[in-house]
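re the bet — no i am not wrong, look at it urself. input seq straight from the record:
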Amino acid sequence: MSPSQTPANEDKESRPRFPPWLLAGVWTLPALLSTFETVVFSAMSGRTMPVWRAFVSESSGWYTWALVTPLVVVLGRRFPMRRATWAKHAPIHLTAAVVAGALQALVSAAVGSLLATSSRPLSTMFWSWFLSQLPVTIVIYVAIVGVSDALLARRRAEERERRAERLEKELAHAQLSALRMQLQPHFLFNTLNAIMALVRDVETERAVRAIALLSDVLWTAMRVGNTNETTLADEMAFVSRYLEIERVRFGDRLDVAIDVAPTLSTALVPSFLLQPFVENALRHGLSRRRDVGHLRLTAAEQNGSVRIVVSDDGAGLAPDWEERMATGVGIANSRARLAALYGSAASVVLTAGPAGQGTSVTIDVPRHS
């Protein structure tokens, strides 16, 4: 944790701030209500008081609270009223409330004396204000401490949520990087195995062609780099190059059809998303056929999502396919990446083809560009 992220600094930044205009606005409301009350009662008693005189007389005490509020907030944070500390801190707050009440009474008495709202001496007006308003003073003091504490708790909760969200994103990025590092060597290993098979069978021209295609695929992978997402057009282009490598090995026994809606070319999908599913279709499905096997890739928009389907008419799902998928690298990593990027908004569903022949993989990711 850097110095700028220490708990002390975080606590300082989470302190509720009360700009002067906000304090003035908050305490103007009770000042206006008190002014209205004074004017009405004066009129009812037969002594009409000008509104401005009533406002100045009543607002002086409330605006004193506006000046005192930041100090009360600081005391509330410095001496919190918690279960373990209330007995020790209560006398401090009681003393502060009495001092705040005395200050408010002094200001109100002084303003009343200047406006000649009463013929009583200043000291008498002070004690009258102080003693009569003391219960209200304590209630106001407690309200300030309570509201500031609630605002502080809310600010801290929001900051914790922001930190948790930031950490979650950083963790997801680290997980995606780790998953991608696992996936790319896995792909490279399987491709090299296919080339080695061609070399063993003395298929020199086909092996050279496969190596050239592999170089092109690796260059594309390097160009993508650490990008978690790529356009669907680029992803399909990458898969097409990979299928060219496999077509060198399969020859005429592999028939590929790709059907992508033109409007989805710029839609973003996870990079290297489709290669594991295509590889599984070839390795576990079509490689067992002696005749022509068909692989179909389609992409269409459905309910705000990009739905990609990889289907084949190969051997179908093995009885223990769920266990294999859980321990494998390709599909398991792809599902983990989708969950890290999109949460529950993305899904991967494997289904068997008609009469148990072939396999279909349906991938849904949120549509975004």
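see?? Residues 17 and 298 are 56 Å apart (CA to CA). told u. also The chain has ten helices and seven strands. so pay up
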